[in-house]
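Supplementary material to the annual report.
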Amino acid sequence: MLRIKVSDRATTTGLRSFMTNIASLVAGLCAIGLIFVACGVNPFYAISKIFMGSFGSMYGFKETVTKAIPLIIIGGGLTLAFRSRFWNIGAEGQLLMGAIFSTWVGLAWGPNLPSWAIVPLMFAAGFLGGALWGLIPAILKIRFSINEVISTLMLNYICAEFMTLLIVGPWKGRSRFGFPGTDNLPESAILGVISGSRIHYVTLILALVFAVILAVVVYKTRFGYEVRVIGENPDAGRYAGINFFKTSLIVMAVSGGMAGIAGVGEVAGIHHYLTYPASISSGYGFTAIIVAWLAKLNPLYAVVSGLFFAGILVGGDAIQISLGLPAATVQIVNGTLLVFLIMGDFFFKNKITIRWGK
Amino acid sequence: MRKIKKLEMRGISKSFQGNPANRDINLTVNSGEILGLLGENGAGKTTLMNILYGLYQPDSGQILINDEEVRLTSPLDSIHHGIGMVHQHFMLVQNHSVLENIALGYEKTPFFFPKIRIRDKVVEFARRFNFAMDPTMKIWQLSAGEQQRVEIIKALLNGADLLILDEPTSVLTPQEIEDLFHILKDMKAQGHMVIIITHKLDEIMDICDRVTVIQKGTVVGSADTATMDKRSLARMMIGREVLFNAEREQLPKGDTVLKVDGITVKGDKGTPVVKNMSFEVYENEIFGVAGVAGNGQRELGEAITGIRAIETGRVEVKGVDTTNMSPRRIYDAGLSHIPEERIRFGIAPGLFLYDNSILKQHHLKKFSKKLFLEYSQIRDHAKSLVESYRVSTHSIDVQTKNLSGGNIQKLILGREISEKPPLLVASHPTYGLDVGATEYLREELLTRRREGGAILLFSEDLEEVMKLCDRIAVMFEGEFVGVLDSGDPRLADIGLMMAGSLRL
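Predicted assembly:
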């Protein structure tokens, strides 16, 4: 008889953590390969095409970096929220709220202000928008014990519908000739790009700086210590006199605010005007959840995992075109990888022994 | 059904990842006998019993029932052979009734209308062993003692001739312990055999016919309890002499450190459980609060330490009004706290040992500069705690959840006491600790007292209260029914006071 036993792993190491992640990714790619086989596509060709499309050419790589920018910023913010065990599934909505706030600032004050003034103002407004949208579920959770998974998820849809309402209604631009969308942001409010690409470097620099700052905050400061204690054991946090209300509010303000900043980058760096929510963000808020998870909730690792998943987004687009696969391919790839990463976590935390015999 | 007349474990060895938990253990039980399995925390008692219950397979050794070898590869095997086990933490579904829980674990439960059809049987069993219980009650409505009885009935219904009880008294009130012992004696009279895992010497002396002592995974002795006394048992268990009477010299009465003035505190259900209570604790003093669990001691402790709100009244620590302040501010005023549920409140299990060595002190100047933590200082502090409080761990870079309960308790004690707080609130500090660790911890409390500290001690262990405290308050239904000096002859009636039938 086959006997399978699961027991707690007494000690865990960084190397094992890394190897588990790699193994999970490989296993996930194998599973994705099977899906390709079912679609009648050579899995090796398709998977190599994904990575060739994103990392194999200069054009592809530039696109990958472009898409990595929001993923790195949002993913970094999510590592903080997840570490305090606040399951923020609402980064998508927080991103959109950031886009809305910054668009308003850009359209209203942009024409009269120089770049050095309007750009920081827009980033500040974006941060504020995302932070406010993130604070709602935080207050709901602490004051009324409302489950944050539900509230953050639902707030995504509310924000998306609100944004649609704005672009077809009061904010519809004259220059759109009746099509939905605001007018273009004035020249001074548009972010510069690295020439020959769509990489809006200001946001990229912000993303990297934020990653470093967050890592320092989490591992070196008193606030980070309190976040880790609360995340590990809320009762111990209460015993230690950690102010729950304050800590949770700061965590969600930062997490939401960083998603908001990603929204500023998308509007001011890529689209230059506010349009349908699905165009402004191709699900970055959701993909960033996987980014944070693969990074093991370390904001520095989120830079690498953000780049990885941006690659899959770009490569996924590439194989859609070249292999004629449906648009949902990318979501399937992402979803499968997340499932395998979470399964990998189980194998990381537990020791499984299998043996034959009675 | 086969009746177990004799059960024998021969040469049982078991190791986990190379660490031997049991080494060549021999053990025998006969019918109509209660065997005590005595040993310190981590001696391997529970491992051995889990082997007998089929949860673990031994690496080597045999188990014999009526001189015939059996293989127990799962709890189901063990149940079929007539072995039942009641774990330290009950395995009951809180929202289900007593009957439903019993039906769930009972093999012969019919598929249709299970509750109705096993009801008579449950009632009959309850009568046979003089249990008082209402089978329609939900588990969450029951006290710990009643829940334990449900577990015992479950095991007996499944035909257990041998019942294993893992630390059965650790969650019971003194009255419930007495009831349990009556039940066990009835079972014994009816030919059942019982193995009790414990580290409490009194229980062994009270109820067991024989005792087997395990130390670091090996049997160090086996004896009839009639031929032993507590002192020799303790020596057998920890391998050296135990100080049963810690020296508590007379010290002059110092200044007031804690002043509680007419406080009222509400319990979880919203009713007042601490009623208009006033008392003071002085320097050089251990003030003990005794009483049966559930009379407001926990809420009183939580209110003083800032975890629970105070409705009316006032608390002062060293002259500073700390009423309803946050636990951190109260700590800064001079109060340290060893919480009752140490794993729940005292540590963040997934963080490293050194992280946990500064919980609630992380804002102090020596551990943090402005916004940043000083990790080199923190690591030094953790190292010195581990050393001076004998926390057994191979490094300070381990996740705290990997320490044993006793070592976590030592870490918390060290953390709370090393800062030499003017006032220490200790709730059941020795609960669940073995004799060696208990002795050490009590010694530390006395040292703190000698240094001028004030200690507020909550304990259900009367022996402990009598030994350590300068003054003893007995709490009943949210009030002190008496406050006595340690030498007061009226302490003989403390049992009556705890039961609420005597008020001074």
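Residues 256-498 of chain B form a domain with the Rossmann fold fold (CATH 3.40.50.300).
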